[in-house]
Amino acid sequence: MSRSSRVNLVLVLLVVIIAAAPLVLGLGRGEEPFSGADAQAESGISEVDPGYEPWFSSVFEPPSGEVESGLFALQAALGAGVLGYCFGVVRTRRRLQGERPGLDDPTPPESDRAA
Fold first, then answer.
1. DSSP 108
2. What distance in Å separates the CA atoms of residue 59 and residue 73, rounded to the nearest whole number?
3. How do the domains of the chain map onto residue ranges?
4. How far is Cα of residue 27 from the mean position of the Cα atoms in its chain?
5. What is the largest CA-CA distance in the chain?
6. How far is CA 67 from each of CA 60, 63, 80, rounded to the nearest angstrom?
7. How far apart are the C-alpha atoms of 114 and 110, rounded to whole Å?
8. Cα(114)–Cα(41) distance, rounded to whole angstroms?
9. pLDDT of residue 79
10. Is 100 helix (H, G, I), strand (E, B) or coil?
């Protein structure tokens, strides 16, 4: 097994452990086990100041939690796609610069100079 294969295997195992740890350890048990930051902030504000009125409301309120989760997953997928595309462009540019030596050198090679 090559070194890069071992590194990839270790990274995949770490991701699995990080994802499974909260479920195995029982973290997040309660009324809403995986509530978002907005819901937690709302409950925290309600505890501190029960009469608090929000200054504004959301522009778009999804009809259900499933739709909200789907939109969040779509947003995450689009962001990952854009980020992956940018990394691919940078990697390809670096690889092409390595294949064509002298690309950054402003002086032309000996064969291209006028005699």
1. P
2. 19
3. 1-57, 62-104
4. 23
5. 87
6. 12, 7, 20
7. 9
8. 72
9. 97
10. coil
